[in-house]
Specification:
heterodimer; A: alpha/beta; 4 domains; B: alpha/beta; Pyruvate-ferredoxin Oxidoreductase, domain 3; 6-stranded mixed beta sheet; 6 strands
Chain lengths: 578, 192
């Protein structure tokens, strides 16, 4: 049956049809929906792991057990899981194992724009790159055969435009594939003596994969005009076809590691000018040049941001249509913390005290944007705690009394715990605030080890944050409600003043969670409002000023009451009837 | 058939994903090749969002570029103005007139431009503007702005009412179908 399917959903369908039994992932845009869709198939066991490394190792264990397995992550997640990946390249697999890494050219929802193809080259594993949903489904199935044929984990690279675009797919039936587990110490125990014997096997596998790539159906030549020959992959292929149709010849690479040298040289010989069109790094181009071919690419197209058809057209000197523009300045509309976001109150208190806040990855990173502007550092998952430790170790009392780390519950489980262990072990007087909104928020509400529910929403193990922190040796562990500004102020003041490390758990569920009951929206008594804009200091999207008075947008307001705690004239009132 | 392009623009959280889902399904049922590209993640938190819908005999790129859109469907008038340059010279806008202040306007760092509908008209652009929020409330929920807009958009397509209804029924939960049908009709029959 033909249907319109999101790229990520097509991968999940591919997993089902390939007979995959085990999926473990940590959510990360733009990869999250793969696992959310896979869990809808009863035949596949799915879980959210605490982080990508744990997910990949669990999937490896499932492969070892003889069941086809899978894990997905965003590009930066693969950095976390790089450790198992590099050595899984040596051990190989038992049942097939496929790993999706979703890059985010254009940084729609990421902290960097790295190109994950480097990981495939460095780990010496094959990489596939689908360019639409139909290929996402087909490549997923073929990737398992490739994995078992060559005894290797297979990386499949998605990008935002393939992951989050819907296109037409045709679905098939599930075929089961299972293997027995067999003890094999030389293959699976990677100590030096064994690993030394595996490394030549890896090199030989790469040589064989290179040969395979020459005729693999992943790669195809579409001959058209021969003045220009374009080598391309992934979503860039779509832009190239949009601009050139059949007027140029195209070598579309579905397998981007290793590259088929003979196929590329044959293609180059048939065209007058050879250009590589690839987003981010010039990985194909450099390899093609190393083959001794004259090639262009990065000289006409940037290695920054995602491409589009106009960008490709302009690079080749083609005209594009300009649209109408108004002369008015259009104010930007950056993402903001939602109305009723529990993080808002804590950030307001931190800003008011002029704290130095080292932040982390999640919705609360938005605490860095005006008017709160409270966060001064965001690096990667878990870095808030470890960086605060280093910061305090160097600046001592000067910073201990005003510096805090803020980290979400899911990010804390991901890689904040180890940073906290370092604070406990190496004894810095650091203040850590866990922003516990009882869900993984930014990626769209996934469960995690602190929520008490599994990926299906069924009851699961629940890690007690207070008990965990105490077990690590923290004596000062306290919980506050971030809707209560006075309580936030007191907790921050007391814990920063304390002569030992402390943990504040700022606990209130995400306002967007369906289970959260909201209060009636607030409204403003225009007689009482003096237009002082005190309420505007928290950056709530539901409050604006009209004719010098505050106005509440009742479609957004959830009655959290932060604004009314700031109002000197008690101008806010509840619209609750009765 | 040459590929037709629609962009759906608005503020994260306004319901553009459902609108693009219904449109994509409708166009696929009409036998077109279809591609829809969406934005998930951080931009959904109240930021400016754009969704692309393309249909024709064979669609390659999943995105619509400047000067390429046959239609702009907009949930908010500032967003209509922001993405105006994506419209083809003879393209058609269907927009909600609702104003949602972005944070720079709320903080006073920027001002919300006035009279955007008349300014866009004055620029010679075909714009069909209406207060979709009031119509959605009339239908029973302020969240039905997306369906009001689709109802209005249906004016400009030579696709049968039955096909629209079929796509609607296939993509909204049964308990909200009546409400959404009403929203669709209110948008479609609005006399501006």
């Amino acid at each position: 049956m033909k249907e319109l399917m999101l790229g990520n959903k097509a991968i999940a369908r591919g997993l089902y049809e390939a007979g995959v039994c085990f999926v473990s992932s940590y959510p990360g845009t733009p990869s999250t929906e793969i696992t959310e869709e896979a869990v809808k198939y009863d035949e596949i066991y799915c879980e959210w792991a605490p982080n990508e490394k744990v997910a990949m190792e669990s999937a490896f264990g499932a492969s070892l057990a003889g069941r086809r397995s899978f894990c997905a992550q965003k590009h930066v997640g693969l950095n976390v899981a790089a450790d198992p990946l590099f050595t899984m390249s040596y051990t190989g697999v038992n049942a097939g194992m496929v790993i999706v890494v979703a890059d985010d050219a254009g940084m729609h929802s990421s902290q960097n724009e790295q190109d994950s193809r480097h990981h495939a080259i460095a780990a010496k594993v094959p990489m596939l790159e689908p360019s639409d949903s139909s290929e996402a489904l087909a490549f997923t199935k073929m990737a398992y055969d490739l994995s078992e044929q060559f005894d290797t984990p297979v990386l499949m690279k998605m990008c935002t435009r393939v992951a989050h675009s819907q296109s037409v797919v045709e679905t098939g039936e599930r075929v089961e594939h299972q293997k027995p587990y067999e003890k094999n110490i030389p293959k699976y125990v990677m100590m030096p003596g064994n690993a030394k014997k595996r490394h030549p096997i890896v090199e030989e596998r790469t040589r064989k994969l290179r040969e395979y790539a020459e005729t693999a159906s992943f790669n195809r030549v579409e001959m058209g005009g021969t003045e220009l020959g374009i080598i391309t992959a992934s979503t860039s292929y779509q832009y190239v076809k949009e601009v050139f149709g059949d007027s140029a010849s195209v070598l579309k690479l579905g397998m981007t590691n290793p590259l088929p040298e003979k196929l590329i040289k044959d293609f180059a010989a048939k065209v007058k000018k050879l250009v590589v069109v690839e987003e981010l790094d010039d990985i194909i181009e450099q390899q093609v040049r190393a083959m001794g071919l004259e090639v262009s690419g990065r000289d006409v197209l940037p290695g920054i941001d995602e491409f589009s058809q106009n960008m490709v057209a302009k690079a080749f000197g083609k005209e594009t249509q300009e649209g109408t523009k108004l002369s008015d300045a259009i104010p930007p509309r950056p993402p903001v913390m939602c109305a009723g976001c529990p993080h808002r109150g804590m950030f307001y208190s931190l800003k008011k005290r002029n704290c130095t806040v080292l932040g982390d990855i999640g919705c609360y990173t938005l605490g860095a944007v005006p008017p709160l502007g409270a966060i001064e550092m965001t690096l990667c998952m878990g870095a808030s705690i470890s960086a605060t430790h280093g910061f305090n170790k160097m600046l001592g009392k000067e910073s201990e009394g005003k510096t805090v780390a803020v980290i979400g519950d899911s990010t804390f489980m991901h890689s904040g715990m180890t940073g906290l262990a370092n604070v406990a072990y190496n004894q810095s007087n650091s203040t850590i605030i866990i922003l516990d909104n009882s869900i993984t928020g930014m990626t769209g509400h996934q469960q995690n080890p602190t929520t008490g529910f599994n990926i299906k929403g069924d009851p699961a193990g629940k890690i007690d944050l207070e008990a965990l922190c105490r077990a690590m040796g923290f004596r000062r562990v306290r919980v506050v409600d971030p809707y209560d500004l006075k309580a936030c102020d007191a907790a921050i003041a007391e814990e920063l003043a304390a002569e030992e490390a402390s943990v504040i758990i700022s606990r209130r569920p995400c306002a967007l969670l369906k289970k959260v009951k909201h209060k009636a929206p607030l409204a403003v008594d225009k007689e009482k409002c003096i237009g002082c804009k005190s309420c505007m200091r928290v950056g709530c999207p539901a409050i604006s000023m009209k004719d010098g008075k505050a106005v509440v947008d009742t479609t957004q307001c959830v009655g959290c009451g932060i604004c009314s705690q700031l109002c000197p004239k008690q101008a806010f009132f509840s619209t609750e009837k009765g | 058939m040459e590929t037709k392009n629609i962009i759906i623009v608005g503020v994260g959280g306004q319901g553009s994903l459902l609108a693009s889902k219904i449109l994509g399904d409708l166009l696929l049922r009409q036998g077109y090749d279809v591609k829809v590209s969406e934005v998930h993640g951080m931009s959904q938190r109240g930021g400016s969002v754009i969704t692309y819908v393309r249909f024709g005999d064979r669609v390659y790129s999943p995105v619509v570029d400047e000067g390429e859109a046959d239609y702009i469907v907009s949930f908010e008038i500032l967003e209509t103005a922001r993405w105006l340059s994506y419209l083809k010279p003879d393209g058609q806008i269907v927009t909600n007139t609702q104003q949602i202040d972005p944070m720079p306007v709320i903080t006073g760092a920027a001002t919300y431009p006035e009279d955007l509908v008349s300014k866009i008209k004055a620029a010679g652009v075909k714009i069909d503007a209406m207060d979709c929020l009031s119509l959605a409330r009339e239908a029973g929920s302020p969240k039905a702005v997306n369906i009001v807009l689709l109802g209005r958009l249906s004016h400009y397509f030579s696709i049968s009412e039955e096909a629209w209804q079929e796509a609607l029924a296939a993509n909204v939960p049964p308990k909200f179908l009546e409400l959404n049908k009403k929203a669709f009709a209110l948008g479609k029959d609005f006399q501006g």
